[in-house]
Amino acid sequence: MTQSESALFDQAVQTLDSFQIEIPSWGFANTGTRFGKFVQPGAASTLEEKFADAAEVNRLTGATPTLALHVLWDLPNGVEDVPEVQQLECRFGVRAGSINPNLFQDQEYKFGSLCNPSAEIREHAVSHVLDCIEIAKLLGSRDLSLWLPDGSNYPGTQSIRQRVAWLQDALNTAHSNLAPQQRLLIEYKPFEPAFYHTDIADWGMASHLAREAGPQARVLVDTGHHYLAQNIEQIVAWLLHTDLLGGFHFNDRRYADDDLTLGSIDPYQIFRIFHEIHSATQEGLPLDVAYMIDQSHNLKGKIEATVQTVVTAQELWLKAALVDRQQLAACQQSCDLVAAEELFRGTFWQDVRPLVRSWREARGLPADPLQALRSGGYVERVSRERGGRSSAVNSYA
Ligand code: LRH
Ligand code: MN
User: Ligand 2 center to residue 249 CA distance, Å?
Assistant: First the structure.
């Protein structure tokens, strides 16, 4: 190995050793669209099976030590289910990660949860969020990751400003119940399921709500929650500049919140986002960013799609780390546009897969996790074990 090759490998090792990404429990379950759900025999439907699948992904990739939980899907009995989670964490060596309240499936949330005109329903929603904070405390989970579908479908049918006031009160209450090391991540989404206005529709609204709520509140960027024309990496740059970036939900999309696998439609998008992160890190900004996957695997094998996503994220993370930022800054300063673009995009063209494979081998991991999954027989085994079940599945995930 030449000196420059070993320097490159050392940088790759450092970069990949520092990269961990959280996987969603709901990514292993039978999910679908409003037009149907294609049941996979090997899909997980119990929390034990979701932890087992997460452990398999972590065994193969070495980069997914935590599993995001959606409370009503994974802990239907609330805090009562915490001991079972703790037992599964020990058994499978995967820790509970971000705790996600469910503020969208109860019938009474028809006109909203934290923003509902009914004080009684708002109270019910706040108490669910407080239960989730309690669960997070008991599990030692740092992030309370909050998304709410609240909004309206027709102009004039709700007071947008009144709902902001109710929402801010609820978030302030949630923030005041956090433990010192905990964070409240506020996720925005421009539309769906509401199609006229959504109460937390963009990064500006989420930023204001976070600032008002308190110092432990941050903004969560779900890459699928943007209009197609929006420049997501510019939003990330602003959230870095304002120290409000708390984390990401990574996925990909062609049209709307399609929840497709990361990098399947526009891998350059994730590269551009990671570039902003690496630049801020190299400029010494103190970053505290949670990298998480939020996808629904309706057609691909669920474990395979998750492994594929982690591998793609590692490759794009390393690619973006390899941008020569000193040289790029010089081109930017001298406005040498073509040189800057060729340097930037040229790094994206680089094939880093051999480097990532060497890192895996150096870490005693399978050089090709997808191949190892396919040849390891795990999917076939769990499909046999779980396959016998009836295809009817109750909750969404
Ligand atoms: C909403 C969302 C949110 C989760 C859900 C599974 O679209 O991105 O993060 O609660 O997906
Ligand atoms: Mn999300």
Answer: 5
